[in-house]
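re: ur question from earlier - yeah i can do the single chain one, its not a big deal. heres the input i used so u can compare w yours
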Amino acid sequence: MPLTWLLRMAKWARRPPSPRRVALVLGVVAICLLLAGVEYFVGWPDALTLNPGGAPRLRVPAN
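and the output i got, formated as tokens:
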């Protein structure tokens, strides 16, 4: 484990985050899990799928 992670954990142990920040992080995690669950059980919509070749590139003529 990197030393920076240990220092960050020590800092959080001394000064824990506010309840508002904890709620924010838990909310973001819940939204991510909700999106993953919808994708797993319902599937990804075809309208949001990218074309396999990617976007066409514009060719600029060389002068």
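The chain has two helices and no strands. not sure if urs matches, ping me
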